């Protein structure tokens, strides 16, 4: 099967111009070395539509219009907890356009909105709260010299590892290790 070559608008105009001058499709075909079926198809398109420029047609047509895409974006920004299925239902009820959950993901992704799960922390039990309160009350009146021997770290993995070691000793006690200043 041979690969099609597309004519530019100038070549299409030349073909239509010759046909409008009264030449037959066969004559134009012979002059330009183009198949008569192509000439016929161009002439038919010109008579139907009034123009012969190539139609933009790459891929499947979009289900949503730009206005519907904006509606999705505004709705998603207003109600950040809505799921893609919720947004799909809202669009369907507002405009009558039914789209899939995956289409909502794609449309929101095109404008930079992506689904993210909120960070969940470990829920504190009543025992945790009591131990934390006792710890803070013990240290409420500490002097700067006492705090100087405490090392702080924002690395939660180290803290979790240390707490696991300490939990083996006693589940109700959280110990802060203090190295004396030398």
Automatic annotation (TrEMBL):
One of its GO terms (molecular function) is DNA binding. Transmembrane segments: none annotated. GO terms for cellular component: nucleus. One of its GO terms (biological process) is DNA transposition. Pfam families: HTH_Tnp_Tc3_2. It is found in: Nucleus. Residues 69-139 form the Transposase Tc1-like domain. This is Transposable element Tc1 transposase.
């Amino acid at each position: 099967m041979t690969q099609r070559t597309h004519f530019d608008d100038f070549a299409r105009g030349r073909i239509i111009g010759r046909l409008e001058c009264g030449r037959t499709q066969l004559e134009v075909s012979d002059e330009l070395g183009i198949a008569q079926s192509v000439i016929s198809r161009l002439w038919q398109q010109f008579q139907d539509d009034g123009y012969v420029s190539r139609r933009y047609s790459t891929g499947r047509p979009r289900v949503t219009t730009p206005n519907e895409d904006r509606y999705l974006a505004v709705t998603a920004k207003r109600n950040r907890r809505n799921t893609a299925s919720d947004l799909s239902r809202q669009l369907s009820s507002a405009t009558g356009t039914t789209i899939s959950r995956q289409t909502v993901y794609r449309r929101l992704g095109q404008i930079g909105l992506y689904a993210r799960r909120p960070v969940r922390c470990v829920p504190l039990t009543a025992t945790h709260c009591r131990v934390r309160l006792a710890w803070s009350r013990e240290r409420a009146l500490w002097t700067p010299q006492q705090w100087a021997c405490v090392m702080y770290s924002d690395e939660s993995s180290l803290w979790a590892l240390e707490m696991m070691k300490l939990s083996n000793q006693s589940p109700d006690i959280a110990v802060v290790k203090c190295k004396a200043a030398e």
